[in-house]
Amino acid sequence: MMKEVRNKDGLTEEEFLKAYNPGDYKRPSVTTDILILGMNEDYSGLKILLIKRADHPYLGSWALPGGFIEEDETAHQAANRELKEETGLEDIYLDQVYTFTKPGRDPRTWVISIAYLALIPELKKVEGLDDAADAAWFDLKFTDDTIELLNEEKDVQIIYELKKETFYNGVIKYENYIPDKVSEDSLAFDHVEILIEAMKKLREQIRYSNQAFCLVEDKFTLPELQAVYEAVLARPLYKKSFRDMISNLVEETGSEKTSRTKSGRKCKEYRFKMEG
Amino acid sequence: MMKEVRNKDGLTEEEFLKAYNPGDYKRPSVTTDILILGMNEDYSGLKILLIKRADHPYLGSWALPGGFIEEDETAHQAANRELKEETGLEDIYLDQVYTFTKPGRDPRTWVISIAYLALIPELKKVEGLDDAADAAWFDLKFTDDTIELLNEEKDVQIIYELKKETFYNGVIKYENYIPDKVSEDSLAFDHVEILIEAMKKLREQIRYSNQAFCLVEDKFTLPELQAVYEAVLARPLYKKSFRDMISNLVEETGSEKTSRTKSGRKCKEYRFKMEG
DNA sequence: ATAATAGTGTCTATCAGACATTATCTG
DNA sequence: CAGATAATGTCTGATAGACACTATTAT
Question: Best of A6, A24, A25 to disrupt the B interface by mutation (most B CBs within 10 Å)?
Answer without folding.
Answer: A25
